[in-house]
């Protein structure tokens, strides 16, 4: 996403801790220095203690223990190609998921089709 954003002329700021987000049009982001940035789009991917999520829902939303654990593995697509039962996952990219009462799996291609991401919960 970063590479494409830079290709499109997006200005990227580092060392800019977000302290507030206002989603009214046009959306604005306030950073720890007090500087305010306006944008057409705000992508909130600021993690477990998300300022963006709390601004969006309008109240504190701290993380809480769920007892769930996620296991992740990245498989080189080249290692999947020799296996006929896995080839369709590479030739017809999609988000694949299997859901059950006590867990689920989510799988999809990354890195332009070079890695297959598998997340098990």
Word description of this protein:
- The structure is a single chain.
- The chain is α+β, with helices and mostly antiparallel strands and 121 residues long.
- Helices cover 21% and strands 31% of the residues.
- The strands form two sheets. A four-stranded antiparallel sheet has the order 4-7-6-5.
- The protein starts with a helix and ends with a strand.
- The chain folds into two domains: 2-57, no CATH class; 71-120, no CATH class.
Overall pLDDT score: 90
Strand order of the largest sheet: 4-7-6-5
State the end-to-end distance.
Answer: 25 Å
Largest β sheet strand count, sense and barrel closure: 4 strands, antiparallel
Question: Would you report the number of β strands?
Answer: 7
Estimated structural class = alpha+beta
Strand content: 25-35%
Helix content: 10-25%
Topology as a string of helices (H) and strands (E): HEEEHEHHEEE
Q: What spatial form do the alpha-carbon principal axes imply? A: extended
The number of helical runs is 4
- Domain module tally: 2
Low-confidence segments:
none
Gyration radius (Cα, Å) is 19 Å
